[in-house]
Amino acid sequence: MMSHVEAMELALIEAKKSVALGEVPIGAVVLDGAGNVIGMGHNMTESWNDPTSHAEIMAIRDAVRKVGDWRLTGCRLYVTLEPCLMCAGAIQQSRIAHVIYGAPSPKAGALESLLRTYDIPGFNHYPQVTAGIEAGRCAMILADFFRDKRGSHVVRELRRDVRVVEGARLESE
Q1: Could you say which of 6, 14, 46, 56 is catalytic?
Q2: Which of 27, 30, 108, 152 could be cross-linked to 11 through a Cys-Cys bond (beta carbons 3.0 to 4.6 Å apart)?
Q3: DSSP per residue over the chain, as a string?
Q4: How far apart are CA 40 and CA 93, in angstroms?
């Protein structure tokens, strides 16, 4: 079975595809219960002019097409940045068992940073969450992208967030 680090490396490769398109570099992969890659995706919001084309959604759509079922029971989703509220909902609705993310998202993170979506009682499915896998590398690809786009102040903010994550105790399988 593929390790968290190996799977996150695949998500980082997907994120690099976004950079080539001028998209925010976020990548995601879905692995089935046996550890096989069944879905891959990267941000396409600008290219497709579609606000729902986040990396997680793209990877889930790819996996659903390959599996032939909207239920991705027993699957794991790896994503380079903590999912937003829309993606957290898609992860939950697709019945993904475990979401593993790299860098936190203080402005939009809906799993732990800004919101704790899966702590809301009453849902019919609660995925397991693991944070901070390759957090430094995941944050750096974003920092580099935004430095080139906007300036160095964004890089300082992302590096501060990564130090917080890297100093935390991380959960592993």
Answers
A1: 56
A2: 27
A3: ---HHHHHHHHHHHHHHHHHTTS---EEEEE-TTS-EEEEEE--HHHHT-TT--HHHHHHHHHHHHHTSS--BT-EEEEEE---HHHHHHHHHTTBSEEEEEE--TTT-TTTTS--GGGSTT-S---EEEE-TTHHHHHHHHHHHHHHHT-HHHHHHHHHHHHHHHHSPPP--
A4: 18
Task: Please say if 171 is a catalytic residue.
Answer: no
pTM of the model: 0.86
Amino acid identity of residue 123, one-letter, is F
Q: Where does the pLDDT of residue 156 fall: very low under 50, low under 70, confident under 90, or very high at 90 and above?
A: low
With 70 as the cut, is the pLDDT of residue 48 above it?
A: yes
C-alpha separations of 138 from 57, 114, 128 in Å: 18, 18, 20
